[in-house]
């Protein structure tokens, strides 16, 4: 994402590369988030132009809308001299998520802005805790070539969760947080379970169970649905295992002729950042 400070008092998305998305400010999540921030700032005698290069597909389950929302508010905040804290930027970026999914949630924009693992205790008022990120943790993401809309994916979820299931899921979450603080990988592996959402959404993802099973058999600490899907994640200790996990996950789709993208990366602890600056 490239953001320019211009003399004209306006906010404009000048071009989008890599995806067919609206240029209209009120229809694009980056524009919606940026507008929310500028309204909070008040009157200024200049404007901003935003150019977006999308490398994350919409409906992929890896935070495409969050990336645009977070990038827009972060970049403009940098050009303004950082009048807003990162916590305030999260609140502005949440408005982009409202435009995308129908509700202002922080589960994607918070880690995009803060980096690493984040725990969203509450959305209103926002209360986000940044958690430690063990250095040797790697993420493997496989994205089969289909799109799942967040709104549609949410619509299949049940409104009520059984009491015992809620207790077990809460215990898993607490144990996972503990594992991050102590780098207890065995505990982390036992805790990486989704008892609430995954059973409902997994039916939307081709070969989900086979891909997940292959990830675990190949040494991953845990695996599950990334966001709303269809991407499937695996968390591994070390790059070597992460690559082997990715290879085996990919073989499941290759064997049936299903196209996919594969990403392997250490978990970035720092969040969105400035890649380059120019006075032009």
From TrEMBL:
Start and end residues of each GHMP kinase C-terminal domain: 177-254
GHMP kinase N-terminal domain span: 32-116
Biological processes annotated in GO: threonine biosynthetic process
Protein keywords: Amino-acid biosynthesis, ATP-binding, Kinase, Nucleotide-binding, Threonine biosynthesis, Transferase
InterPro entries attached to this UniProt entry: GHMP_kinase_C_dom (IPR013750), GHMP_kinase_C_sf (IPR036554), GHMP_kinase_N_dom (IPR006204), Homoserine_kinase (IPR000870), Ribosomal_Su5_D2-typ_SF (IPR020568), Ribsml_uS5_D2-typ_fold_subgr (IPR014721)
Any GO molecular function: homoserine kinase activity
NCBIfam families: PRK01212.1-4, thrB
Protein name: Homoserine kinase
